[in-house]
Amino acid sequence: ASDVYKRQEICSGIAQKNKKGKEQEQEEIVIPEEETLPEKEFNVEIGRCMLRILPIKKSEPVGDRIIHFMDAFLAHASEKDNELFASSADDEYEMQTSPETPTSRLTSSLVALMVPLLGAKDKMIRFRATQIVAHIVNTLESIDDELYHTIQQGLLKRIRDKESSVRVQAVLGLARLAGNDEEEDGNGDSSTALLEKLIEIMQNDTSADVRKNLLANLPLAPVTLPYLLERARDLDAATRRTLYSRLLPTLGDFRHLSLSMREKLLRWGLRDRDESVRKATGKLFCDRWVEDCA
Questions:
Q1: Residue 182: helix, strand or coil by DSSP?
Q2: pTM as predicted
Q3: Measuring CA to CA, which residue among 105, 151, 108 is closest to residue 130?
Q4: Which run of H or E residues covers position 25?
Q5: What distance in Å separates the CA atoms of residue 107 and residue 131, rounded to the nearest whole number?
Q6: Residues 111, 147: contact at Cβ < 8 Å?
Q7: Is 162 helix (H, G, I), strand (E, B) or coil?
Q8: Which residues have CB under 8 Å from 162's CB, separation 6+?
Q9: N or C: the chain end with fewer CB closer than 10 Å?
Q10: What is the spatial distance between Cα 109 and Cα 275, in angstroms, rounded to a whole number?
Q11: How high is the pLDDT of residue 21?
Q12: Among residues 59, 85, 191, 217, which one has the least CA distance to residue 138?
């Protein structure tokens, strides 16, 4: 990832001037104000590489490896961009808006390339395009309104896809967007409407994978908590186990729950027909709830 970032840095025209002396010191970082032609060609080439993995079947690990590499590169490049641009941006300007960086332009370019493919007739292309967009969302520390709405509208069209694998990727991306909204307290009604849609999907989707991934990735908030706890009665054992092993331990002090809800969760978990759910409930009770009371 660092090697690819160095190429991106060169293509973007970012240069560091050093002055020579007994001790070599970094004088300044020269950052072009606009996208350069080599940077544009770099972004096109990255997009071309991503297009090549679209037909790769889900069972082929090479597709996932390339996407995970893209994740690592975008995360590394975003971190480096933030360091460079934070040191060069005026404090007043920085407070008003986040500066446009080579990585933000690359991200926008990839999203613009993939969103039209979310509705492709081929189920594998739909899956890979949705997977790529969802992974891009997971690498974003912040997102501008235009990109937010482009991604949201594209992924919302896939939450009713006939292929459950496509729906899983769509809800993963949307759950992250909803989580960002909760943290930033932005987009008001849009955020509430998105959460309502995702909650409805978690309650009614026929795929256990979709329900389980929403349970694990929806933001933990007062508005979502009652619906997340409902999954203790889910038809799928793995989804019920996810509630007891992953969600409830992150809840913090269990005394925030009502007495009747605590009693129901313990009774349902300890009497569950699946042994792994019973074990997860026992571990939760002994390692978390009893310890909190001690």
A1: helix
A2: 0.85
A3: 151
A4: strand 25-30
A5: 14
A6: yes
A7: coil
A8: none
A9: C
A10: 48
A11: 47
A12: 217
Question: Which structure tokens are listed for 140?
Answer: 């974003």
Of 179, 177, 225, 182, the residue nearest 202 (C-alpha)? 225
Which residues of the chain are under the pLDDT cut of 70? 15-33, 86-98, 180-190, 292-294
- With contact defined as beta carbons under 8 Å apart, do 228 and 215 qualify? yes
How many angstroms separate the CA atoms of 277 and 17, rounded?
Answer: 60
| Furthest C-alpha separation in the chain | 74
DSSP 161: -
Q: Is 137 exposed, middle or buried (0-12, 13-18, 19+ CB in 10 A)?
A: buried
- The encoded tokens of residue 98 equal 């986040």
Q: Which residues contact 85 (CB under 8 A, 6 or more apart)?
A: 31, 99, 101
> Tokens 């978990």 belong to which residue?
269
Q: Residue 179 corresponds to which tokens in the numbers above?
A: 């989580």
Please give the Cα distance from 213 to 77 (Å, whole number).
28
Residues 6+ apart with CB under 8 A from 27: 17, 18, 19
**H or E element that contains 19:** strand 15-19
Q: What is the mean pLDDT of the chain?
A: 84
User: Of 163, 135, 153, which Cα lies nearest the Cα of 73?
Assistant: 135
The SS3 assignment for 17 reads strand
What lies within 8 Å, CB to CB, of 127 at 6+ separation is 58, 163, 165, 166, 169
